[in-house]
Amino acid sequence: MLPWITILRPLNLLQATLAVVLTTAFLGELEQSRNLLFLILSVIAINAGGNIINDIYDLEIDRINRPERPLPSGVMSAGQARIYLIFLFAAGMLFSWLISIETFIIAGPISIPTLIAYSACFKRQPLIGNLTVSFMLGLAFIYVGTAFSNVQATLVMAALAFGFTLIREIVKDLEDMEGDAQDKARTLPLVWGEIKTLNLVLFLMVAFIVIDLLPYALGVYNIIYLWIVLLGINLPLLVFAFILWKKPIKKNYSRVQLFLKLDIFVGLAALYFGQTF
Fold first, then answer.
1. How many other C-beta atoms lie within 10 A of the C-beta of residue 98?
2. Distance in angstroms between the alpha carbons of the first and the last residue of the chain
3. DSSP letter at 32?
4. Three-state DSSP class for 67?
5. Is the dihedral of CA 181, 134, 240, 193 positive or negative?
6. pLDDT in tens, 67-79
7. Containing structural domain, residue 254
8. 112, 133 contact by CB (below 8 A)
9. CA quadruple 259, 262, 263, 264: dihedral, nearest 10
10. Cβ(142)–Cβ(204) under 8 Å?
11. Which among 46, 88, 124, 150 counts the fewest CB atoms within 10 Å?
């Protein structure tokens, strides 16, 4: 049973679930338990299916980078994984349809084909794969806003999530260079070189530190937002940028991309507590 859970990447799904709940709280819609339940179930199912597709297409890469995963370790076959993901995608579409036609359109015609195209084509292309993942995470916040007919309130969240994720995805490419090279992938570090890609990451980090202050400067969020962003996002970003600049090695790439993955929740907290009620 464990491989059937492991291949779904439970930590990622927990992160997605928390993001849905926190975004719903941000919108003040927690009392709409029906929509919230279907949102959680649809997001879990579609993300889980996307994770399985990623593992199927990354099988050869994962034999090097992550040999303990269910497919490269041999405890689950690719055929079993395909049946599993079809079931998950169908369930995700059903749950989204139970919310509204608008959420169904985002989940079905937009999200699922994009996830498939990412794993099949975009992931191994320089920058477009990184942009696709960033787009999908930003879209997740808009998806929640759509479920509660309040997309406008989620636009800042989506934009910040897009930028933060773009940085993380490029750092992840730096971390995975060895396996990607074996699979002849064309990620940024393999096309541009490690140094140029690292310089891009450092530039994006500095740019994000400036951009995430704009909502406060424009009066969209209050002083609480500013302090959470300064201490919980910008200060750590500066520290990690310095670490990467001084010692750009795989171990540090791994640490930075994990931090970026988890620190999204600090951003959500900044947006929630920084509202001017």
1. 15
2. 46
3. -
4. coil
5. positive
6. 778 888 778 888 8
7. 2-273
8. no
9. 140
10. no
11. 150
In this prediction, residue 260 carries a pLDDT of: 83
**Distances from the Cα of 142 to the Cαs of 52, 92, 116, 207, in angstroms?**
24, 17, 20, 23
Rounded-to-integer distance, Cα 132 and Cα 151, Å: 20
pTM for this one?
A: 0.85
Contact in structure between 118 and 128 (CB atoms under 8 Å): no
Give the pLDDT confidence of 156-169 residue by residue, as tens digits.
889 888 998 899 98
31-54 confidence digits (pLDDT tens) = 999 999 999 999 999 999 999 998
Long-range contact pairs involving 62-65 (C-beta distance under 8 Å, separation at least 24): 62/179, 63/179, 64/178, 64/179, 64/182, 65/176, 65/178, 65/179
Count of Cβ atoms closer than 10 Å to residue 203 Cβ: 12
Q: How far apart are CA 177 and CA 126, in angstroms?
A: 12
- pLDDT of 62 strictly over 90: no
R_g of the chain computed on alpha carbons: 19
Domain of 260, CATH number, reads 1.10.357.140
State the Cα–Cα distance between residues 79 and 94, nearest whole angstrom. Answer: 23
- The pLDDT of residue 184 is 73
Element (H, E) at 180: helix 177-182
Indicate the residue type of 138.
G
pLDDT value of residue 261: 78
